[in-house]
Amino acid sequence: MSVLTRDEAQTRAQIIDVERYTIALDLTTGEETFDSRTAIRFTARAAGDTFVEVRPATLRSIALDGQPLDPALLDGNRYPLTGLIPGTHELHVDAAMSYSRTGEGMHRFTDPADGETYLYTQLFMEDVQRVFAAFDQPDLKSVFAIDVTAPEGWTVLGNGVAERTGDGRWTIAPTPLISTYLVAVAAGPWHSVTTEHAGLPFGLHCRRSLAPHLDTDADEILGITRACFDRYHEKFDEPYPFDSYDQAFVPEFNAGAMENPGLVTFRDEFIYRSAVTDTERQTRAMVVAHEMAHMWFGDLVTLAWWDDIWLNESFAEYMGYQTLTEATLPQALNSVRAGETPFPDTWVEFGVTRKGWGYDADQRPSTHPVAPDPDAVPDTASALLNFDGISYAKGASALRQLVAWLGEKDFLAGINTHFARHKFSNATLADFIDNLASATDRDIHAWAGQWLRTTGIDTLTADVHEPTGPTDAGQSWTLAVERDGSRPHRITVSTFDHALNTQAGPGHLAPRDRFELDIPGDGTPLVRTGRRPALVVLNDGDLTYAKIRLDAASWDTALTHLSAIPDALTRAVIWNAARDMVRDGELDPARYLTAARTHLPYESDLALVQGVLSFADGQIAARYVTPEARPAALATLTSLCRDLIRRTEDGSHPGLRLTAVRHFIDAATQPDTLQAWLTEGTVHGGPELDPELRWRILTRLAVLGATDEATIAAELAADPSATGREGAARCRAALPTLEAKAAAWQAMFSDDTLSNYLFAATAQGFWQPGQGEVLSGYVDRFYPDAIALAARRGPAIAEAAGRYAFPACAVDAESLATGTRALKDPALIPALHRKLVDQLDDLRRALAVRTTNE
User: Fold this and answer.
1) Is 35 helix (H, G, I), strand (E, B) or coil?
2) Can you tell me the distance from the alpha carbon of 228 to that of 285, in angstroms, rounded to the nearest whole number?
3) Which of 135, 148, 545, 672 has the fewest Cβ atoms surrounding its Cβ within 10 A?
4) Is 322 helix (H, G, I), strand (E, B) or coil?
5) Number of helices (H) and strands (E), helices first, in the chain?
6) Known catalytic residue: 726?
7) What is the pLDDT of residues 270-327, one digit of tens each?
8) pTM
9) Do 186 and 157 meet the contact criterion of CB atoms below 8 Å apart?
10) E strands within 499-620?
11) Using an 8 Å Cβ cutoff, are 310 and 395 in contact?
């Protein structure tokens, strides 16, 4: 398949304008293909040649202005249109298209719970051509009118209101001008919950087997949706630009969600069939807010080319978190009281999860600017690589810093100018910066150059000097901030003193002072009156994007009094600093585990508990400590989780208890407790084991060699759902036997029948620390097999292979050398190459951490 280059897109945009697509999809033609008939009305501005993209199973016919063309001229995914003359043209394409099992194009899924089939499109970047013929680039916006023929009993959803027009026939209201990648169709026997808000139809949709779980949470999801909708209308002058707002929770979805206008698609794991924590509910709410922000950032105003993807994702990320913090609910939802913000600490979760994603991505060889130079994104294959922690988390952090520096009033004024000037059209970084500049006297162009066009992370280090005078009211202390990097920063500095009173937990700290600081300043240390504080925290409030290093005395105070710091966001900044220091070899992983063991039993913020435990378990215990030290690390984690479980016996903190139970399971080195819980169907004192916990326990027992195929099969018989199938695949691959590993490898890399989700589940189970004997030889096999797989099955499976099937637990120099050699293989497709570059850099870092702390 030919990928579209930026030069080709610019040339085609100079030749043609596209007015309208009229599309007819027939979903009743079988299980392997569907019929797609497309009429494209377009205007040639001048005489010339161009092409249209289509990837059919069979191209039955193609005609231009009523004249048949030869289907045999299709070259891969391109059909040439030569000798165009100026004026209006109409292209007709009739094709059979293949269903997808990888979440690309028209994905087809049959629910094992009840045998019902569901279809949905994911057309992002260049997959529209898997569904209908198109001039597939974001700056050729058009109107899309779609008719769908579906089996009886199905409901069809689309970008506009869909109406049943006959037996199995549905007509979707024509769209305003949108880009090809934003077209969406979903069809199946959906379970739907509908309402109306602000004069528009709102709907939630999921597969029928999840209906009871959607019904349980429908009020919460719709309440968040309405609250965010109203808050965006307070921020933005342009009203919501589409005729309806549907949210479909679809199976085997590759992303978290997709911002199709009027029909947002979400992975249906967001319909919770097992117990979840409030932080996980907050994450779902943030995704709702994020995707709604895209209705303006991305859908109303769209990038002209993929180098500006940050204009979509960074803004939606920032607006999602900020708006969720500001939105108020009109009625009580779950534990939230009417009139309160439902999730007041969203930036804590951002700090301990999303921001780390950005920091990690920005320190790898594959780093890139938030807004790359256009020449760095020459085609769609390279553009796909930039959907990472930089385009999302770093970009959102940069915008948060911009708001701190610019002020929200001017920021929103510039945003609203941007919408007014470019609605239903396309815009570039230069357009955006000019629109912001129109609302302020500050030098936005210089700011953009420093923040958006550069790579890497600045490091801000506090240099605190002791009091210089006698111990009286006239004494003082000084603060200087050393900056390793080039960006300007506006930060908040907070200071704390030891307090006389005590609280539950190790010690107590009382806030003394809080002040703003611009870096770089004039180079003169800041003089503050009073005794030297016990703790000085840079970037309190987490308003900038930088590594933070405390002075030595403050760091000692932080490690011993962290849980006594009053504000959760302050604690998040310090935990992030500790995480960075472990990754940089500046803090012994054992010290991090000791700090976690000391402070998490007293931590009140669930996002912090989850973030710290995830890093401690998933990185420190799994990769950063040596095999010899791993049992001690796991023992620390299980001991900590036992404390948290005991702390929550009164039922007052169900989310904390669930988190502790999950991590106890993951860190267990002996099967006895897990076997008892599984047999009794409950953790002593609760919770009862729901499907997620049962499969989690069974996976750990499989890793420990304490279960077998018969037990896995019995569990699958009791839970024959899609997630049950994934759980069984994960367990089978985790069994420490030669036969189990061989079968899993065959399923992943040879027969090509696994869907994207079943592939990921199998890969997640396969590589396990401590299973070196049965995994011997698979490191060498991974690279040629993954390269061949990616070439056969494409970017989605390549991404899954690089992410989940990579031998991450093989932390040794030989594994690193093998992978480094594989990077030279010319058969590597870009999606897999990028994942391997990142994984190998993380492996190199893990080896360095081990070496530093030996």
Assistant:
1) strand
2) 9
3) 672
4) helix
5) 28, 28
6) no
7) 999 999 999 999 999 999 999 999 999 999 999 999 999 999 999 999 999 999 999 8
8) 0.96
9) yes
10) 509-519, 526-529, 535-537, 547-549
11) yes
